[in-house]
Structure prediction request, 291 residues.
Amino acid sequence: VSAESAAPTATMAPEGRNRPSLVILPFDCFSGDRELEILADGLTEDLTTLLGRIPELFVIARNTAYSYKGKNPDLREVGDELSVRYALEGSFRELGENVRISSQLIETRTGTHLWAENYDRPLDTFVAIQDELAQTMAMQLCSEIIRAEAALAKQVPAANQDALSCHQQAKALLLFRGWSKKSFLEATNLHRRAIELDASFAPAHAYLALLLAIGRMAYFATDRQAARDEALEAAENALDLAPQSSEVLGCVGCAYSELGFHQKGIPIIEKAIEIDATNAQAFAALGAAKI
Prediction:
């Protein structure tokens, strides 16, 4: 995960331009109510934290983003100053007994609005449901950024874009909601759907293998034998499709180890690290496999 905490300047390193990158600007509060402003700041911080956990996304640190609070900046200038491709801005306003949270995702190079949504929540219970709202917004933002990146790259056909979206939604779901039987079932079904959309999409096969292996160990899978068989098939498919992908190898090697095939899994994980020494997931999997 990357975050930039320095004060914004026009000479900041362009790291964010090389991959999906985002600044979450402080939410405006159209009220003189200090309590509502605190809620707005809390949501801004929660979103920054949640999205900052995603390795593929470069997220500007909260302190840097807050230097823009109350300034109504030109988002194209913000993009240049922070070297980010996307900006999220929003507002809080009271509507009777409710609070309306409005948010917009903007592509900073052109100022184009990519996505907008309103969320109405009861003001008297907002603190209790703030985590749920932050998770919902974060997952929607992930999906929209994935779509925008696919359209920007123009490297994959429509079916593959949808497969990629399913894959990333599954990863975000587990990241934001944690492991449970419900999240396991949703994530595995999303990866099955990704494979239906594009059977050549190796990461979907690799992550499906890993999810099924872990789900089997955690007894989330109703039929453990069927989960084992499907995991092994998905692992073999992933290896056939992308034998030189560190991401794929790390997942497949971990899946084999979770299924009890340590002698097969460990060399695959080691190869993943050899290909990409920054693959933290593979290092963690290797340590677990050798215990």
Remarks:
- The chain has two domains: 14-150, 157-290.
- DSSP finds eleven helices and six strands in the chain.
- The longest strand covers residues 112-122.
- The two ends are 27 Å apart (CA to CA).
